[in-house]
Write a structure and sequence with these properties.
The chain is mainly α and 169 residues long. The protein has one domain. The chain is 82% helix and 7% strand. The chain is built from two helices and four strands. The strands form two sheets. It has a two-stranded antiparallel ribbon with strand order 1-2. A two-stranded antiparallel sheet has the order 3-4. The longest helix is centred in the middle third of the chain and has 122 residues. The protein is rod-shaped, with a radius of gyration of 57 Å. The protein starts with a strand and ends with a helix.
Length: 169
Amino acid sequence: MNGDREEAGGTVALPTVGQVQNLVSEMIMAISEAKTIPASGKVIIDREQMLQTLEMLQDRLPEELRTARWMVRERETFVARTNERVRDLIQRARQKADELVSDTNIIAEATEEANILVRRAEDHSHRIRLEAEDYAEDRLERLEALMGRVLDQIRAMRAELRQTRSVGQ
């Protein structure tokens, strides 16, 4: 359908969506304002006018419905693609977050292990320094004792030397 309808004497343009809504509104108004037949509650309506309006609606609605269905399908396709992209993005974000958390945990564990190793090395270094100081103190004490004995021997030899000199004089 090309949007026009052939009638005797030429082409008649079909109504737009707004015109369709106007036609429906006119029909509702015509029915609500129609004269009632006394004692029956039924109304008198201009048959030709109502049929002409209904035919125009019938001609136009299928095109509008096709367009609306196409638009709904397009929208659903777009939403589905967008949702899929969002799911992929969320999945990638979760994977990256997991990697970052994992990397952070690895870094934290490595830092903790490094701190433990540094503390052990510092403790070991402190213990070695204390042992070296104790060893040096012990060696110096022995040296001092040895030097004291050597000094005592030197004094004793000097005294003996003086004594032999005084006896020989």
